[in-house]
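queue> pop job 88
queue> type: inverse folding (structure -> sequence)
queue> payload:
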């Protein structure tokens, strides 16, 4: 006897709220303005990895990858793609198409200007993937020892990634660092603290100099007509300029 068919429950899905719709429209416009990243397809035959374009314009895809790696060398491109395609081979895994596309996206974000920066960007992409893999294995580890070891490797890879970013920044800035000098002055009357930035040096194009700034900084001085407490003065005394903070006031010879 045939069993009666059970009607499937219909789950109603609500429409986006006005705020959600506006947010999604803004997100679509933002994504449309971002540069596209190359996403080649990895094919494996007889233990060898190959790369194909996901569309009919293979030549255009090759130029896109070459531009992402900031080079005109086919040998350099082939070597770096091979490094990325074999990512994880020593861990018993093989990189897939998504892994390669993700790595090229990271390299694109770095925007290397030459092969040296591109090589560092490739290392950063590989280090990031290694850190993520170790974190996944730590999460699924069956023993505390294994979790600790994988977690330690993940932490080392994450620190290496940070060091690589710092190396890239230092290389691009020519080894110059921004040095910022600050002086802190405390007004004993009101207990207010004034932080004055009097000199900044660093990367060309971003210098800030305050060579003529007075070092005797403090709260503003208010006059008798101000809404706040005014300075006291002797009756019938004419206003007089505040002495120069840079040194003792010169007295007029009588």
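queue> result:
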């Amino acid at each position: 006897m045939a069993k009666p068919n059970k009607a499937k429950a219909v789950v109603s899905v609500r429409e986006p709220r006005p705020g959600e719709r506006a947010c999604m429209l803004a997100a679509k416009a933002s994504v449309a303005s971002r540069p596209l990243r190359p996403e080649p397809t990895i094919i494996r035959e007889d233990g060898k990895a190959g790369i194909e374009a996901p569309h009919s314009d293979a030549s255009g895809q090759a130029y896109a990858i070459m531009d992402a790696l900031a080079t005109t060398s086919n040998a350099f491109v082939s070597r770096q793609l091979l490094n990325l395609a074999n990512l994880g081979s020593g861990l018993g895994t093989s990189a897939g198409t998504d892994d390669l596309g993700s790595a090229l996206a990271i390299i694109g974000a770095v925007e290397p200007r030459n092969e040296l920066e591109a090589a560092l960007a490739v290392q950063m992409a590989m280090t990031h993937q290694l850190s993520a893999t170790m974190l996944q294995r730590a999460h699924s580890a069956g023993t505390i020892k294994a979790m600790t070891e994988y977690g330690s490797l993940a932490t080392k890879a994450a620190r290496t990634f940070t060091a690589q970013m710092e190396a890239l920044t230092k290389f691009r800035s020519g080894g110059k660092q921004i040095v910022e000098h600050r002086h802190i002055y405390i007004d004993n009357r009101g207990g207010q603290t004034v932080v004055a930035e009097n000199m900044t040096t660093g990367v060309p194009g971003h210098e800030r100099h305050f060579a003529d700034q007075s070092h005797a900084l403090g709260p503003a001085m208010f006059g008798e007509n101000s809404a706040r407490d005014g300075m006291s003065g002797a009756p019938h005394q004419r206003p007089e300029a505040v002495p120069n903070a840079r040194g003792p006031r010169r007295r007029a010879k009588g």
